Amino acid sequence: MNGFQKTRRISAVLSAAIVNAAILLSSAPALASPQPRSEEWWFSAWEIERKVWPLTRGQGVVVALIDSGVEARLPDLKGAVLPGRGYDGASRADGRADDDTELGGHGTAMAALIAGQGHGTGMVGIAPRSRILPISAALHNYDQTIRYAVDHGAKVINFSTSTSASRCPDDVQESIAYAVQHDVVVVAAAGNDGFLSESGNSPANCPGVLGVGAVDAYLGIWEKSTPGDNIMVAAPGVAVGSIGKRGLFSRNNNGTSQATALTSGVVALMRARFPRMPAREVVQRILATAKDVGPKGWDKTSGYGAIIPYLALTETISRTASNPVYDRFDQVRPDNVVKPPPTTMPADRPRFDTLSEKGSDNRIRIGIFALLAAVCLGAGVMITRNFRHRVGRRDQG
Protein backbone atom coordinates (compact mmCIF):
# COMPACT_ATOMS: atom_id res chain seq x y z
CA MET A 1 0.00 0.00 0.00
CA ASN A 2 1.56 3.32 -1.05
CA GLY A 3 1.57 6.54 0.98
CA PHE A 4 -1.35 8.09 -0.86
CA GLN A 5 -3.56 5.08 -0.12
CA LYS A 6 -2.58 5.18 3.56
CA THR A 7 -3.50 8.85 3.77
CA ARG A 8 -6.90 8.19 2.19
CA ARG A 9 -7.56 5.33 4.62
CA ILE A 10 -6.66 7.51 7.60
CA SER A 11 -8.95 10.25 6.33
CA ALA A 12 -11.76 7.73 5.84
CA VAL A 13 -11.34 6.40 9.39
CA LEU A 14 -11.40 9.91 10.84
CA SER A 15 -14.48 10.83 8.82
CA ALA A 16 -16.26 7.69 9.99
CA ALA A 17 -15.36 8.50 13.60
CA ILE A 18 -16.84 11.98 13.28
CA VAL A 19 -20.04 10.66 11.68
CA ASN A 20 -20.44 7.96 14.33
CA ALA A 21 -19.87 10.49 17.10
CA ALA A 22 -22.52 12.75 15.57
CA ILE A 23 -24.98 9.86 15.43
CA LEU A 24 -24.32 8.95 19.04
CA LEU A 25 -24.76 12.53 20.20
CA SER A 26 -27.95 13.07 18.22
CA SER A 27 -29.50 9.76 19.23
CA ALA A 28 -28.44 9.79 22.90
CA PRO A 29 -31.63 9.53 24.96
CA ALA A 30 -32.50 12.61 26.97
CA LEU A 31 -32.77 12.27 30.72
CA ALA A 32 -36.09 10.64 31.50
CA SER A 33 -38.68 13.23 32.46
CA PRO A 34 -40.37 12.67 35.81
CA GLN A 35 -44.02 11.80 35.48
CA PRO A 36 -46.36 13.47 37.99
CA ARG A 37 -48.77 11.42 40.04
CA SER A 38 -52.34 11.21 38.80
CA GLU A 39 -53.46 13.21 41.85
CA GLU A 40 -51.40 16.21 40.75
CA TRP A 41 -54.27 17.69 38.76
CA TRP A 42 -52.61 21.10 38.41
CA PHE A 43 -50.14 19.59 35.92
CA SER A 44 -52.88 19.05 33.37
CA ALA A 45 -54.79 22.20 34.34
CA TRP A 46 -51.64 24.26 33.76
CA GLU A 47 -50.46 22.13 30.81
CA ILE A 48 -47.09 21.81 32.51
CA GLU A 49 -45.78 18.78 30.63
CA ARG A 50 -47.20 19.70 27.25
CA LYS A 51 -46.52 23.45 27.09
CA VAL A 52 -44.45 24.68 30.02
CA TRP A 53 -41.69 22.09 30.45
CA PRO A 54 -40.61 22.29 26.81
CA LEU A 55 -39.76 25.92 27.62
CA THR A 56 -38.37 25.73 31.15
CA ARG A 57 -38.09 23.52 34.23
CA GLY A 58 -36.56 26.03 36.58
CA GLN A 59 -32.92 25.23 35.88
CA GLY A 60 -30.52 26.90 38.32
CA VAL A 61 -33.07 29.01 40.22
CA VAL A 62 -32.85 28.96 44.02
CA VAL A 63 -36.16 29.14 45.89
CA ALA A 64 -35.85 30.00 49.58
CA LEU A 65 -38.48 28.18 51.61
CA ILE A 66 -39.07 29.87 54.96
CA ASP A 67 -40.97 27.22 56.83
CA SER A 68 -40.43 24.29 59.21
CA GLY A 69 -37.34 22.98 57.42
CA VAL A 70 -37.21 20.35 54.69
CA GLU A 71 -36.52 16.61 55.02
CA ALA A 72 -33.76 16.54 52.44
CA ARG A 73 -33.01 12.80 52.88
CA LEU A 74 -36.23 11.72 51.17
CA PRO A 75 -35.88 10.14 47.69
CA ASP A 76 -38.45 12.55 46.25
CA LEU A 77 -36.20 15.47 47.20
CA LYS A 78 -32.79 13.91 46.69
CA GLY A 79 -30.41 16.44 45.19
CA ALA A 80 -32.98 19.23 45.24
CA VAL A 81 -32.30 20.69 48.70
CA LEU A 82 -29.31 22.93 49.35
CA PRO A 83 -27.78 23.51 52.78
CA GLY A 84 -29.73 26.34 54.39
CA ARG A 85 -30.21 27.67 57.90
CA GLY A 86 -32.02 26.58 61.04
CA TYR A 87 -33.07 29.22 63.58
CA ASP A 88 -34.19 29.00 67.20
CA GLY A 89 -33.05 25.51 68.10
CA ALA A 90 -33.86 23.82 64.81
CA SER A 91 -32.84 20.16 64.84
CA ARG A 92 -30.34 20.83 62.05
CA ALA A 93 -28.31 23.98 61.60
CA ASP A 94 -28.64 23.76 57.81
CA GLY A 95 -32.44 23.50 57.77
CA ARG A 96 -32.40 20.09 56.06
CA ALA A 97 -34.69 18.42 58.57
CA ASP A 98 -38.40 19.12 59.05
CA ASP A 99 -39.28 20.10 62.63
CA ASP A 100 -43.03 20.35 62.05
CA THR A 101 -44.86 18.35 64.76
CA GLU A 102 -48.39 19.45 63.92
CA LEU A 103 -48.93 19.00 60.17
CA GLY A 104 -46.60 16.09 59.46
CA GLY A 105 -43.97 18.06 57.59
CA HIS A 106 -45.31 21.32 56.21
CA GLY A 107 -41.99 22.56 54.83
CA THR A 108 -41.27 19.24 53.13
CA ALA A 109 -44.68 19.28 51.46
CA MET A 110 -44.13 22.77 50.07
CA ALA A 111 -40.64 21.87 48.82
CA ALA A 112 -42.00 18.85 46.95
CA LEU A 113 -44.67 20.94 45.23
CA ILE A 114 -41.93 23.18 43.90
CA ALA A 115 -38.99 20.84 43.23
CA GLY A 116 -40.08 17.24 43.81
CA GLN A 117 -37.95 14.78 41.83
CA GLY A 118 -40.40 11.86 41.60
CA HIS A 119 -37.97 9.20 42.83
CA GLY A 120 -39.84 7.92 45.88
CA THR A 121 -43.60 8.28 45.94
CA GLY A 122 -43.55 9.79 42.48
CA MET A 123 -44.18 13.29 43.80
CA VAL A 124 -43.03 15.77 41.17
CA GLY A 125 -42.69 19.52 41.52
CA ILE A 126 -43.57 21.93 38.73
CA ALA A 127 -40.00 23.30 38.69
CA PRO A 128 -37.98 20.11 39.24
CA ARG A 129 -34.67 21.65 38.16
CA SER A 130 -34.89 24.47 40.66
CA ARG A 131 -33.25 24.10 44.05
CA ILE A 132 -34.68 24.65 47.52
CA LEU A 133 -32.87 26.73 50.14
CA PRO A 134 -34.49 25.51 53.38
CA ILE A 135 -34.79 27.97 56.25
CA SER A 136 -36.30 26.60 59.44
CA ALA A 137 -37.61 29.60 61.34
CA ALA A 138 -40.12 30.84 63.88
CA LEU A 139 -42.58 33.58 63.04
CA HIS A 140 -40.77 36.30 64.98
CA ASN A 141 -37.58 36.25 62.89
CA TYR A 142 -38.98 36.73 59.39
CA ASP A 143 -36.76 39.76 58.96
CA GLN A 144 -33.60 37.71 59.53
CA THR A 145 -34.70 34.90 57.27
CA ILE A 146 -35.48 37.18 54.33
CA ARG A 147 -32.03 38.73 54.49
CA TYR A 148 -30.41 35.32 54.81
CA ALA A 149 -32.29 34.10 51.73
CA VAL A 150 -31.26 37.13 49.67
CA ASP A 151 -27.63 36.88 50.75
CA HIS A 152 -27.49 33.19 49.82
CA GLY A 153 -28.61 33.41 46.24
CA ALA A 154 -32.40 33.04 46.35
CA LYS A 155 -34.27 34.53 43.39
CA VAL A 156 -37.64 33.62 44.91
CA ILE A 157 -38.66 33.61 48.58
CA ASN A 158 -41.65 31.47 49.54
CA PHE A 159 -43.74 32.13 52.65
CA SER A 160 -46.34 29.38 52.96
CA THR A 161 -46.56 30.46 56.57
CA SER A 162 -47.83 33.66 58.13
CA THR A 163 -48.33 35.49 61.38
CA SER A 164 -51.36 37.51 62.37
CA ALA A 165 -50.77 41.23 61.98
CA SER A 166 -53.11 44.05 61.02
CA ARG A 167 -50.22 45.77 59.25
CA CYS A 168 -46.80 44.77 58.04
CA PRO A 169 -44.27 44.93 60.90
CA ASP A 170 -41.60 47.56 60.34
CA ASP A 171 -38.67 45.14 60.60
CA VAL A 172 -40.27 42.78 58.08
CA GLN A 173 -40.98 45.67 55.71
CA GLU A 174 -37.33 46.68 55.92
CA SER A 175 -36.32 43.16 54.92
CA ILE A 176 -38.84 43.15 52.07
CA ALA A 177 -37.20 46.36 50.86
CA TYR A 178 -33.85 44.58 51.02
CA ALA A 179 -35.24 41.78 48.84
CA VAL A 180 -36.72 44.26 46.34
CA GLN A 181 -33.39 46.08 46.14
CA HIS A 182 -31.70 42.79 45.27
CA ASP A 183 -34.25 41.80 42.60
CA VAL A 184 -35.83 38.94 44.57
CA VAL A 185 -39.53 38.02 44.24
CA VAL A 186 -41.27 37.45 47.58
CA VAL A 187 -44.42 35.28 47.52
CA ALA A 188 -46.67 34.82 50.57
CA ALA A 189 -49.88 33.01 51.51
CA ALA A 190 -53.08 34.94 52.13
CA GLY A 191 -54.00 32.69 55.06
CA ASN A 192 -56.73 30.19 55.79
CA ASP A 193 -59.04 32.30 57.96
CA GLY A 194 -61.80 32.69 55.42
CA PHE A 195 -63.95 35.73 55.89
CA LEU A 196 -63.29 35.92 59.62
CA SER A 197 -60.43 38.34 58.99
CA GLU A 198 -59.16 40.54 56.21
CA SER A 199 -55.60 41.49 55.31
CA GLY A 200 -54.58 40.25 58.71
CA ASN A 201 -51.61 38.06 57.85
CA SER A 202 -47.98 39.02 57.42
CA PRO A 203 -45.89 39.03 55.27
CA ALA A 204 -48.68 38.74 52.69
CA ASN A 205 -49.90 42.20 53.69
CA CYS A 206 -46.48 43.79 53.18
CA PRO A 207 -46.05 46.09 50.16
CA GLY A 208 -43.71 44.46 47.66
CA VAL A 209 -45.03 40.95 48.33
CA LEU A 210 -47.07 38.86 45.90
CA GLY A 211 -50.05 37.77 48.04
CA VAL A 212 -51.70 34.51 46.94
CA GLY A 213 -55.20 33.11 47.45
CA ALA A 214 -56.45 29.61 46.63
CA VAL A 215 -58.77 28.18 43.98
CA ASP A 216 -59.93 24.67 43.14
CA ALA A 217 -59.69 22.67 39.91
CA TYR A 218 -62.80 24.41 38.57
CA LEU A 219 -61.43 27.91 39.31
CA GLY A 220 -63.77 28.27 42.25
CA ILE A 221 -62.40 30.38 45.11
CA TRP A 222 -61.63 28.31 48.19
CA GLU A 223 -64.01 29.31 50.95
CA LYS A 224 -61.27 29.62 53.59
CA SER A 225 -58.88 31.74 51.55
CA THR A 226 -58.35 34.92 53.57
CA PRO A 227 -59.46 38.03 51.62
CA GLY A 228 -57.68 41.35 51.60
CA ASP A 229 -56.48 44.34 49.63
CA ASN A 230 -53.09 42.64 49.38
CA ILE A 231 -54.29 39.59 47.42
CA MET A 232 -52.97 39.74 43.87
CA VAL A 233 -53.43 36.27 42.32
CA ALA A 234 -54.80 32.81 43.05
CA ALA A 235 -53.39 29.34 42.42
CA PRO A 236 -54.39 25.70 43.04
CA GLY A 237 -54.95 25.19 46.74
CA VAL A 238 -57.79 22.66 47.01
CA ALA A 239 -57.16 18.89 46.98
CA VAL A 240 -53.46 19.58 46.49
CA GLY A 241 -51.58 16.56 47.80
CA SER A 242 -47.91 16.28 48.61
CA ILE A 243 -45.46 14.33 50.76
CA GLY A 244 -44.67 14.85 54.43
CA LYS A 245 -41.46 14.43 56.36
CA ARG A 246 -41.96 10.65 56.53
CA GLY A 247 -41.96 10.47 52.76
CA LEU A 248 -45.59 9.43 52.42
CA PHE A 249 -47.96 11.02 49.93
CA SER A 250 -51.07 12.61 51.40
CA ARG A 251 -54.12 13.47 49.29
CA ASN A 252 -56.66 16.24 49.42
CA ASN A 253 -54.83 18.87 51.42
CA ASN A 254 -56.26 22.37 51.21
CA GLY A 255 -54.71 25.75 51.86
CA THR A 256 -53.19 28.94 50.57
CA SER A 257 -49.86 27.38 51.59
CA GLN A 258 -50.07 25.01 48.64
CA ALA A 259 -51.23 27.80 46.32
CA THR A 260 -48.25 29.88 47.38
CA ALA A 261 -45.71 27.09 46.84
CA LEU A 262 -47.06 26.46 43.34
CA THR A 263 -46.92 30.18 42.61
CA SER A 264 -43.27 30.26 43.73
CA GLY A 265 -42.69 27.33 41.38
CA VAL A 266 -44.13 29.37 38.51
CA VAL A 267 -41.86 32.28 39.41
CA ALA A 268 -38.89 29.89 39.40
CA LEU A 269 -39.86 28.68 35.93
CA MET A 270 -40.01 32.25 34.68
CA ARG A 271 -36.73 33.28 36.25
CA ALA A 272 -35.01 30.31 34.65
CA ARG A 273 -36.54 31.10 31.28
CA PHE A 274 -35.71 34.79 31.46
CA PRO A 275 -32.61 35.09 33.66
CA ARG A 276 -32.14 38.78 32.84
CA MET A 277 -35.75 39.77 33.39
CA PRO A 278 -36.19 42.00 36.48
CA ALA A 279 -38.35 40.71 39.33
CA ARG A 280 -40.81 43.55 38.75
CA GLU A 281 -41.36 42.43 35.19
CA VAL A 282 -41.80 38.79 36.22
CA VAL A 283 -44.58 39.78 38.62
CA GLN A 284 -46.09 42.15 36.08
CA ARG A 285 -46.38 39.34 33.55
CA ILE A 286 -48.01 37.01 36.07
CA LEU A 287 -50.62 39.62 36.97
CA ALA A 288 -51.31 40.68 33.39
CA THR A 289 -51.91 37.12 32.17
CA ALA A 290 -53.99 35.82 35.09
CA LYS A 291 -57.46 34.49 34.26
CA ASP A 292 -60.21 36.51 35.90
CA VAL A 293 -62.25 34.40 38.35
CA GLY A 294 -64.85 35.23 40.96
CA PRO A 295 -66.29 38.76 40.79
CA LYS A 296 -65.41 40.58 37.58
CA GLY A 297 -62.07 42.34 37.73
CA TRP A 298 -59.82 42.46 40.76
CA ASP A 299 -61.33 41.11 43.97
CA LYS A 300 -60.16 40.52 47.52
CA THR A 301 -60.01 36.74 47.34
CA SER A 302 -58.49 35.97 43.94
CA GLY A 303 -56.82 39.26 43.12
CA TYR A 304 -56.43 39.62 39.36
CA GLY A 305 -57.30 35.99 38.84
CA ALA A 306 -55.89 32.48 38.56
CA ILE A 307 -52.29 32.15 37.39
CA ILE A 308 -51.79 30.73 33.89
CA PRO A 309 -48.07 29.81 33.67
CA TYR A 310 -47.88 29.29 29.92
CA LEU A 311 -49.37 32.71 29.19
CA ALA A 312 -47.03 34.34 31.71
CA LEU A 313 -44.16 32.78 29.78
CA THR A 314 -45.32 33.58 26.26
CA GLU A 315 -47.94 36.33 26.10
CA THR A 316 -47.20 39.78 24.68
CA ILE A 317 -47.43 42.23 27.58
CA SER A 318 -47.36 46.01 27.43
CA ARG A 319 -44.57 47.64 29.40
CA THR A 320 -47.19 49.96 30.87
CA ALA A 321 -49.32 47.14 32.29
CA SER A 322 -50.24 47.75 35.92
CA ASN A 323 -48.08 46.28 38.66
CA PRO A 324 -49.75 47.00 42.01
CA VAL A 325 -47.37 44.75 43.94
CA TYR A 326 -44.48 47.12 43.28
CA ASP A 327 -46.59 50.26 42.99
CA ARG A 328 -47.64 49.79 46.62
CA PHE A 329 -44.06 49.27 47.62
CA ASP A 330 -42.88 52.39 45.78
CA GLN A 331 -45.52 54.47 47.55
CA VAL A 332 -44.62 53.17 50.98
CA ARG A 333 -40.84 53.14 50.49
CA PRO A 334 -39.96 55.75 47.86
CA ASP A 335 -36.42 55.90 49.28
CA ASN A 336 -35.95 52.27 48.30
CA VAL A 337 -37.23 52.46 44.76
CA VAL A 338 -34.71 50.68 42.61
CA LYS A 339 -34.57 51.26 38.89
CA PRO A 340 -34.97 47.86 37.18
CA PRO A 341 -31.77 46.70 35.53
CA PRO A 342 -31.74 47.02 31.73
CA THR A 343 -32.78 43.97 29.82
CA THR A 344 -31.82 42.97 26.31
CA MET A 345 -35.13 41.20 25.90
CA PRO A 346 -38.26 43.42 25.80
CA ALA A 347 -41.16 42.03 27.79
CA ASP A 348 -43.45 42.17 24.77
CA ARG A 349 -41.01 40.26 22.55
CA PRO A 350 -39.68 37.26 24.47
CA ARG A 351 -36.75 35.59 22.74
CA PHE A 352 -37.46 31.99 23.58
CA ASP A 353 -35.01 30.62 21.04
CA THR A 354 -31.99 32.08 22.81
CA LEU A 355 -33.06 31.65 26.42
CA SER A 356 -34.70 28.25 26.55
CA GLU A 357 -33.16 25.36 28.43
CA LYS A 358 -33.80 23.18 25.42
CA GLY A 359 -31.75 25.63 23.38
CA SER A 360 -29.00 25.46 25.97
CA ASP A 361 -28.92 21.67 25.74
CA ASN A 362 -28.65 21.89 21.96
CA ARG A 363 -25.82 24.40 22.18
CA ILE A 364 -23.96 22.07 24.56
CA ARG A 365 -24.34 19.16 22.12
CA ILE A 366 -23.20 21.30 19.21
CA GLY A 367 -20.19 22.42 21.22
CA ILE A 368 -19.24 18.84 22.07
CA PHE A 369 -19.58 17.82 18.43
CA ALA A 370 -17.50 20.77 17.28
CA LEU A 371 -14.79 19.97 19.83
CA LEU A 372 -14.71 16.32 18.78
CA ALA A 373 -14.56 17.28 15.10
CA ALA A 374 -11.72 19.72 15.80
CA VAL A 375 -9.75 17.07 17.68
CA CYS A 376 -10.22 14.51 14.90
CA LEU A 377 -9.37 17.06 12.23
CA GLY A 378 -6.26 18.12 14.11
CA ALA A 379 -5.16 14.52 14.45
CA GLY A 380 -5.69 13.99 10.72
CA VAL A 381 -3.63 17.05 9.87
CA MET A 382 -0.79 15.92 12.12
CA ILE A 383 -0.79 12.41 10.63
CA THR A 384 -0.90 13.76 7.09
CA ARG A 385 1.91 16.22 7.76
CA ASN A 386 4.00 13.48 9.35
CA PHE A 387 3.42 11.19 6.38
CA ARG A 388 4.27 13.93 3.89
CA HIS A 389 7.38 14.79 5.87
CA ARG A 390 8.56 11.18 5.78
CA VAL A 391 7.77 10.88 2.05
CA GLY A 392 9.62 14.16 1.39
CA ARG A 393 12.72 12.95 3.20
CA ARG A 394 12.72 9.68 1.25
CA ASP A 395 12.37 11.55 -2.06
CA GLN A 396 15.18 13.93 -1.17
CA GLY A 397 17.46 11.06 -0.19
UniProtKB/TrEMBL annotation:
The keyword Transmembrane applies. GO terms for molecular function: serine-type endopeptidase activity. Keywords: Hydrolase, Membrane, Protease, Serine protease, Signal, Transmembrane, Transmembrane helix. The lineage of its organism: Bacteria, Bacillati, Actinomycetota, Actinomycetes, Streptosporangiales. The chain crosses the membrane at residues 364-384. The keyword Hydrolase applies. PROSITE patterns: SUBTILASE. The active site is at residues 67, 106, 257. Residues 58-305 form the Peptidase S8/S53 domain. GO terms for biological process: proteolysis. InterPro entries: Peptidase_S8/S53_dom, Peptidase_S8/S53_dom_sf, Peptidase_S8_subtilisin-like, Peptidase_S8_subtilisin-rel. This is Peptidase S8/S53 domain-containing protein. Belongs to the peptidase S8 family. Residues 1-32 form the signal peptide.
